[in-house]
User: Which sequence fits this backbone?
């Protein structure tokens, strides 16, 4: 059962990350401006973060969809969602009227307060999916199962679960 | 007894064999992880380099690439310096709310400029290229700058009005360069002068840098209105105050 839930978690987080990354990738200048709008990071690193972010999202998204190094990428995903939640909450708290830019969107939303709440709720949900995958990284239909057939189950102490399920 | 010993050594041998196999599997898995990580790292580096290359923000504007008749690095002030109220606006020619602002207050603002009641510092930017399939936002601003460069601020202001009146819908193909030339001529520019500037997108790098400057000015959306240096956080009151000031 857990491995099926894991598959769903992988597809949700992976799908959202991949979509967000692909939407952002074509306009790097906009991503830099978006990162700057949050007014948290020092200007020296703003362009780099703006350029790296969509790439990370695409790679984490693709890896999770494929089930490749699931635990490692779930950890990266979780860290990013924590960062996003902090960023959005900070913008909200300081009364900034900005768009989260989550899917390459631009402009100012009609009701920023409501939008902030929705964005944080979504990121919290995705964070929970990531945490699930960090705890139970063995999932169905994952490349990991082909690449690492046996031994890791023993190492992870997941043999018992396997025995019950299979 | 002998049999027993044999059995024990057999199981010992089996255990040793299993340990050896586990050790080999572990090495193999580490190699697989290493290979996957290296492959992903290469893809990531390529993607970031592509992204970096694509973003020309901050690159130097080439010779002739800076519009003429600007009053600031990325702005043009229109109106008498004796005007009691200075309005600063950040606008994108593709932005629908800017169009509404122009519809609601454009005529009064122009009257106010003529009457010496207000002067307006136009910071035109182009961050809505994704809203059309032809990068209309930045092409339209390039055309506006071509008009400013060749025909001066009054013609720029006319072009600004025409562009908002004919603003293409978001998600559309925008308008072709030939239409931008028509608007420029309508605004008072010389066709032979503006056509190459519009066709070659001459001020494009300046437009990119102007847009980046908006973000560095902590302006995150358009239209953003400042009245005598004070940022109007609420757009509706901001527009009201603009109209008030022109009376």
Assistant:
């Amino acid at each position: 059962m857990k491995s099926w839930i894991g598959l769903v978690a992988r597809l949700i987080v992976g799908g959202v990350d991949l979509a967000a990354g692909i939407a952002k990738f074509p306009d790097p200048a906009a991503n830099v401006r978006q990162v700057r709008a949050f007014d948290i990071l020092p200007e020296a690193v703003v362009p780099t973060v703006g350029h790296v972010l969509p790439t990370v999202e695409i790679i984490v998204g693709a890896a999770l969809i494929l089930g490749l190094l699931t635990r490692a990428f779930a950890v990266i995903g979780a860290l990013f969602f924590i960062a996003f939640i902090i960023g959005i909450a900070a913008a909200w708290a300081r009364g900034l009227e900005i768009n989260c830019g989550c899917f390459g969107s631009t402009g100012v939303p009609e009701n920023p307060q409501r939008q902030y709440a929705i964005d944080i709720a979504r990121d919290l949900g995705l964070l929970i999916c990531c945490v699930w995958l960090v705890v139970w990284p063995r999932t169905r239909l994952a490349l990991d199962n082909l690449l690492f057939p046996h031994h890791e189950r023993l190492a992870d102490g997941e043999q018992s679960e396997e025995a019950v399920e299979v | 007894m002998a049999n027993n010993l044999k059995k024990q050594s057999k199981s010992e041998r089996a255990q040793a064999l299993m340990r050896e196999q586990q050790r080999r599997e572990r090495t193999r898995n580490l190699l697989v992880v290493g290979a996957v990580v290296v492959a992903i790292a290469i893809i990531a580096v390529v993607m970031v380099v592509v992204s970096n290359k694509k973003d020309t923000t901050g690159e130097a504007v080439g010779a002739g690439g800076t519009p003429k008749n600007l009053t600031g690095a990325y702005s043009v002030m229109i109106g008498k310096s004796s005007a009691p109220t200075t309005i600063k606006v950040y606008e994108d020619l593709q932005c629908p709310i800017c169009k509404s602002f122009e519809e609601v207050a454009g005529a009064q603002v122009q009257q106010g400029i003529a009457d010496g009641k207000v002067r307006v510092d136009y910071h035109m930017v182009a961050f809505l290229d994704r809203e059309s399939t032809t990068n209309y936002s930045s092409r339209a601003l390039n055309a506006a700058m071509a008009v400013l460069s060749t025909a001066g601020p009054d013609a720029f202001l006319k072009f600004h009005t025409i562009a908002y009146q004919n603003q293409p819908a978001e998600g559309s193909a925008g308008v072709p360069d030939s239409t931008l030339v028509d608007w420029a001529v309508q605004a008072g520019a010389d066709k032979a002068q503006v056509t190459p500037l519009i066709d070659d997108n001459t001020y494009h790098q300046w437009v990119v840098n102007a847009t980046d400057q908006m973000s560095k000015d902590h302006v995150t959306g358009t239209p953003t209105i400042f009245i005598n240096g004070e940022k109007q956080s609420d757009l509706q009151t901001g527009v009201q105050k603009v109209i008030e000031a022109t009376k």
